[in-house]
């Protein structure tokens, strides 16, 4: 059977990790009947349907559906930034991020350069963590606890996708390596604790060079998107296309 070219919603746009190939087919681990999903299948051009499905999909991730890992809250171990021209470096550690489940689907795009498709997400995130500032020539770094709000971070994700027929005679989507680019619509807001000399020195540095906040926001948002990607991979490895996507001729 020759499949025509189709487009599909982003909830399946990521690389499948657990696939085994056999004579051009996908070998699935289980052939048990699929349970009904709590959202209807969508056409790729029905943006409102895709938005409703995405909202439900985030709750499925947080409930561990299909073995997916919760993403809200998410823990990011560390993010670092070196500023050689200032002889200074910054790091965030043990970052706790919330708000991912309210990520919004802004746009679906097709026929991009190189045959790629894409999606744009917008996220408002709240995070807490430990921030450190190291200065050349000073033996001990400055430390503080930071609370940051990221407003309207746009994640532009592009990919190339293919459809393969599984040995269960169902169609599955295989996506090539994705690219994630993040843009901040607003400078993140923050406050530091405790009210100490270290907090004051770090605050002065952040106020003088707000690109530091942009860098942290971009890296944290991108890391979160990669975690979401891992869940999409698991989902699309187990769920045939027909359960979440409608072909244009249906």
From TrEMBL:
Identify the keywords attached in UniProt to this record, alphabetized. Signal
What InterPro entries does the record tag this protein with? To_sf
Q: Specify the signal sequence span.
A: 1-24
For the keyword Signal, the answer is yes
Tell me what this protein is called.
Uncharacterized protein
Q: Which domain of life is it from?
A: Eukaryota
Instruction: Cite the Gene3D superfamilies for this sequence.
Output: Haemolymph juvenile hormone binding protein
